[in-house]
Write a structure and sequence with these properties.
The protein is built from 5 helices and 8 strands, in the order αααβββββααβββ. The chain is α+β, with helices and mostly antiparallel strands.
Length: 196
């Protein structure tokens, strides 16, 4: 599985507009070591969140204790908690201080399914393991301890390019009440593993 590590994405990939990064993350492979188990999933759904003119973005009103990692360097991780129990995993984009990111909404499980099932409480249906941001975070054991870490040099978590070219669809983002007209949700067309 060393192949996945050698093709990891670099800072130049992340240091761009989040709309572009969100689309180009579709088909990339997220890899994580969890209790000495390798977990791999193909990213099949993302959402872009901008720093300007995007009221749904956590950075819209500026830096806070919760969202400060969103203003970090491109390639860093921004994790936040929702409903007091669930976690959402984001990739920081653009230059430090801007405050843009891409939410990973869903992943197609590729490797380490049995461990993902244990993490999710023995969910047996493969297509439901990671079909949503909190489901994916739970399956990959992602919590607030990853907030602020970097994907660029981590030995635990990173994203690799395996040369997969996906047909990409787009829609309005899900589960937000502001800036609902923006078509910033991207997904692998025809995938059974997207959130909805």
């Amino acid at each position: 599985m060393e192949l996945y590590n050698t093709n990891r994405l670099d800072k130049d990939f992340y240091n761009r507009n989040p709309i572009v990064v969100a689309q180009e993350l579709i088909g990339k492979y997220l890899c994580k070591i969890d209790n000495d188990k390798l977990l791999i999933g193909k990213i099949c759904e993302t959402e872009a969140y901008l720093s300007d003119n995007d009221e749904a973005s956590h950075s819209y009103r500026g830096i806070t204790k919760r969202n400060k990692s969103m203003f970090d360097d491109a390639g860093n991780i921004y994790v936040y908690k929702i409903y007091g129990i669930h976690y959402c995993f984001n990739v920081v984009t653009e230059a430090k201080g801007i405050g843009s990111a891409v939410l990973i909404r869903a992943i197609e499980p590729i490797y380490g399914l049995a461990h993902m099932q244990i993490n999710r409480g023995k969910i047996n249906k493969t297509k439901e393991l990671c079909s949503g941001p909190s489901k994916f975070a739970q399956a990959f054991s992602i919590d607030l301890s990853y907030d602020g870490n970097s994907l660029l040099d981590s030995k635990i978590i990173y994203i690799s390019d395996m040369g997969v070219i996906a047909k990409i669809g787009s829609s309005a983002r899900i589960g937000i009440s502001k800036s609902t007209d923006l078509m910033y949700r991207f997904y692998e067309a025809g995938s059974q593993f997207v959130s909805r």
